[in-house]
Amino acid sequence: VRILAEGVRSTSPGARAHVLVLELSAVDALENPGALAVECFGPVGALVQYDGREQLLALLAVLPGCLVGTVQGSRDEPLAADCVQALTRIAGRVVWNGWPTGVAVTAGQHHGGPWPATTNPLHTSVGTAALDRFTRPVAFQSMPVELLPPAAR
After folding, report:
1. What is the pLDDT of residues 70-79, one digit of tens each?
2. Cα separation of 151 and 117, whole Å?
3. Is 119 exposed, middle or buried (0-12, 13-18, 19+ CB in 10 A)?
4. In this structure, are strands 66-71 and 91-96 parallel, antiparallel, or unpaired?
């Protein structure tokens, strides 16, 4: 992996992220797929140069489960549908020609995906389904009503 471009580091106090664009070849990425799985927070992007459809699909096949996958392209691009289909298998959210939004507890937000992005793709870390992460179902069998929690009476 090599640095293709790097933004100016801030000298202001506090944590400040700077832009970083990385580059690697498909051959290198396929030989060391772990390089594609390094999680980065902030404005970091990795460009992987590939030769043809088969190499691109091989790259997408080695990606682990992730929160978001983005396709930058045009509808008439022959590989667009392949990319969307591949990302649908590994990402909790697939973005077309945009950037992932911030996360919020709203009905339209999902931020999950298959392992290792999440331990349970049914419960997301944001969106209204996120509330389920903080609940634990308990069954009461043959319990006298007066011993039930007030919400269950």
Report:
1. 899 898 998 9
2. 34
3. exposed
4. parallel
